[in-house]
Every structure is written in structure tokens, then in C-alpha cells.
Amino acid sequence: MTSASPLRIGVLGAAAIARNFIAGVAPSKTVKVVAVASRERAKAEAFAKETGLAQAFGSYDAMLADPAIDAVYNPLPNTLHAHWSIRAAEAGKHVLCEKPLATTEADAIAMFAAARKHKIHLVEAYPYRAQPQTRKLAELVAANAIGKIQLIRSSFGVQFTDPTNIRLKPDVGGGALFDAGSYAVSLVRLVAGRRPVRASAVAQWTATGVDNTVAATLEFDGGMMAQISCSFATGYHRHALISGDTGTIETTYLNHPPLGGPPVVRIKRGIMVGDPVETIEVAGTNGFLAEAESFRDLVLHGPSHWTGATPEESVDIAATLEAILASARSGKTVAVTPAP
Ligand SMILES: NC(=O)c1ccc[n+]([C@@H]2O[C@H](COP(=O)([O-])OP(=O)(O)OC[C@H]3O[C@@H](n4cnc5c(N)ncnc54)[C@H](OP(=O)(O)O)[C@@H]3O)[C@@H](O)[C@H]2O)c1
């Protein structure tokens, strides 16, 4: 691949989210989604026809063997992210892997080891990270705009009730925590800049045996705390409150711009109830498009061009999710493994 040619992406699995990804990336001049692979050839062909892709493969391995594919988008069920991202790395493909990158920290570490060994780039897909809204948040935190961060609250809830949905299946890594919760935890990791040292969580469980609602408290060295919540049983909500010792920031950390107005970040530069809240309007763009173009810049120009989670962040997110789930299952506070 050269700077004159677009990054050619193949999709692993005819996933529902891949349709949104393909539609979002379609206007790009620098990234082209060119193929889909399915476990069933007929499914791949129907998907390619519906989404306008040039090529359909009847197995994941067949697509990975094609030298015309530069990179893969991996939207497989969560427990398959590690196996197929590693297989893609072995085939020399760069990987944009759906969140959560992995269901265990050990898997995340193994995935990045494979990426290093085979000299490809592997990153975790969080479209909100490519949005100006999130970059403004990171810029404000880095500039100490609300002082020393003391408390982060991050929530994401949606509703899923169909038991055939992969999100409600324990054997493929279902559950609200790995789904919406990975977003909430990733936002905390972005703002905190490090992994927590302890997690204490409670959960309610579905009849299918996955976590339906989770609330967790995370303790960091230095005294900072965070609380995350996620759910498959609520109306849609997604927001975060970041509280420092001289002010507060609120954000909706959206993947895509909201309907009916620009995305905003709200900041109160003061500690009193009457201090004014400043609303900062930012640009918005399709998150899949921005993410995919940043991925292409990463492949072409290196990690400083990637707007998303770094490998270190993704390993920390995996370790944190693992500790939260262990705490919710055991009813005990769980120590998060120290960063490798
Ligand atoms: N970033 C976001 O905004 C966002 C949004 C939604 C989902 N996601 C992530 O994207 C991934 C896929 O979600 P989705 O809702 O698109 O899932 P989905 O529609 O169920 O698609 C998953 C695909 O994986 C393949 N697959 C391989 N083994 C499977 C198995 N044992 N059971 C089920 N499917 C299997 C299937 O493709 P073939 O049959 O064609 O092989 C299937 O179409 C998840 O990791 C999820 O967390 C991210």
C-alpha cells in the first residue's frame, strides 16, 4: 500500500454492525471496504450484493489469504476477536477489531504480541475516540482545565431482549459489561490515563446467564475514583461526568453526531453551584468514517496518527473489564492486575 492508494479492508463475518461501518466509510477516498467473508458463501454473496462490496468469500481463511486485502475489520462475537485477529496478523493483515478487543487481559496481550511479531497494526474500534467531541475532552483534561481529577462517572445503557442476539449469549462473550460497559470503561481509562487498582461491582443477570445491568466502583492509585454503569435493560443513555478539584466536564462521548444540533462538551470552570457552565460546540462526523481514516493514517504513517485507544489502553481496558466481571460474580472487591 502507498500513500496514493486507498487502504483495502475486508470484513470478517456478515455482522449487523458491519453494514453501518460500510455505509459510514463509503464516502472515503482513502479507505475502501472491498470484501466480506462469511462462514457461508451464500450469506457472504447476499451481504456483498446488499452492501455493494466487490468480493465475497465463503470462509474467513480464504479472505485472509487474499493479497489484495490490506486490512480487516473484525466485528465477530466478542470471544472470537482474539482468535481471528491473531489469524489475521499471521496472514499479514492490519486489524481494526471491534470492542471489546478481548474478553481477558491475557488474550489482549497475546493479540498485541502477534501484531508485533507479524509487524502489523492492531487497534480496538471505538468510533467516539475519533470524534472532535472526545478530542476536546482529552485536550481540556490535559490542559488541567478542571484541576486534579478526583471522580469520573461514566454510564451507557441500551435495551436488548432478543435471546438470539449474541449480546445475550454467555458462550460468545455476551453481557452488558463487554458491550456498553466497554465504552464506559474506555472513557474512564482515557481520562484517568492509567488502569485502576481495585474494582467492586454488582450486577443483575439475565435468564440466559449474562450480566444485564452492572454498576462498578473503580479505585485508582493516588485516590481518584470512578464509577461506571451499563445496562441492557434501560432506555438509551450515554454520558460522563468528570469532576476535578477546580471544575467539572460533562460529555455524551457519542460515536456519531446527535440529531438536531452539534455535539457539545459542557465545562464548569469553578466549584460553586452558581458558577456558569460553558457549552463548547464541536464539529461532528460519522464515527466509522473518522475511525477508518485514522486507521489508514496509522497504517501509513504510524501510531501518532491514530486517534483511538493505544495498545496499552486496550490492555488496561481488558484488565479492568475482567476485574469488574470477577467482582460482580464473586460479590468481593477484586484487585486489578498491575500493568505489565
Ligand atoms: N462500535 C460499535 O458501535 C458497535 C456496535 C455494535 C456492535 N459492535 C461490536 O461488533 C461485534 C458484532 O456485533 P453485531 O451486533 O454486529 O453481531 P452480529 O450481527 O451477530 O454479527 C456477528 C457475526 O459474526 C459471525 N459469527 C461467527 N461465529 C459466530 C457465532 N458462533 N455466533 C454468531 N455469529 C458468529 C457471523 O457472521 P457469518 O455468519 O457471516 O460468518 C455474524 O454475522 C461485537 O463485538 C459488538 O460488540 C460494535
Describe the structure.
The strands form two sheets. This protein has a nine-stranded mixed β-sheet with strand order 14-13-12-11-7-10-9-8-15. The chain has a six-stranded parallel β-sheet with strand order 3-2-1-4-5-6, sandwiched between helices. It contains nine helices and 15 strands. The protein has helices at residues 16-25, 41-51, 60-64, 81-90, 105-117, 132-142, 177-192, 287-301, 311-330; strands at residues 7-12, 31-37, 55-57, 71-74, 94-98, 122-125, 149-159, 198-205, 211-219, 225-231, 233-244, 248-251, 264-268, 277-281, 334-335. The protein is an alpha/beta fold. The relative contact order is 0.16. The protein folds into two domains: 7-126, NAD(P)-binding Rossmann-like Domain (Rossmann fold), CATH 3.40.50.720; 129-288 and 318-335, Dihydrodipicolinate Reductase, domain 2, CATH 3.30.360. It starts with 6 loop residues before the first strand and ends in a 5-residue tail after the last strand. Helix 1 packs across helix 8 (287-301). The mean pLDDT is 97. Helices cover 33% and strands 27% of the residues. Bound molecules: NADP nicotinamide-adenine-dinucleotide phosphate. NADP nicotinamide-adenine-dinucleotide phosphate binds next to helix 1. Residues 13-17, 38-39, 43, 75-78, 80, 98-99, 125, 127, 166, 172, 179, 255 line the site of NADP nicotinamide-adenine-dinucleotide phosphate.
